[in-house]
Amino acid sequence: NFGLLQRAVLNLILNAVKFSPQNAVVKIRLAIVNHHAVIGVHNTGKGIPISNQPFLFKRFSRVGSASEGGEGSGLGLYFVHTVAEKHFGYTEVESDIGKDTCFSLHLPITGYDTNLSETDFNRMAQSKS
Length: 129
Known about the structure:
By secondary structure, the chain is of the alpha+beta class. It contains three helices and four strands, in the order αββαββα. The protein has a four-stranded antiparallel beta sheet. A hairpin with a 6-residue loop joins strand 3 and strand 4 (101-108). The radius of gyration is 16 Å and the shape is globular.
């Protein structure tokens, strides 16, 4: 469902902006890894303690205070996680205190030709746009 995927990716991007210092750069990356399309959103905020990470994708979970940009319902990452599961994918977070944070959305690619080189893939993608 394109609409749900679009909202999930937008949620990751808006969270990255919200939890980054002013004028910081948020990086968005798309890659193919192990037959999955991986959308990674990377920011340079304060980082998320490893002990809090298991709760990030749970309903109504909020990590951080309002002074750190933590206002919200606690449903955003839960929504991203739910959308990933509906598409047979999964979510991940890489972070720690004082380190950058990267949230990623992994979605399986069906009908992907494993013998396709990166050059051929790029050529095919350009011809379809």
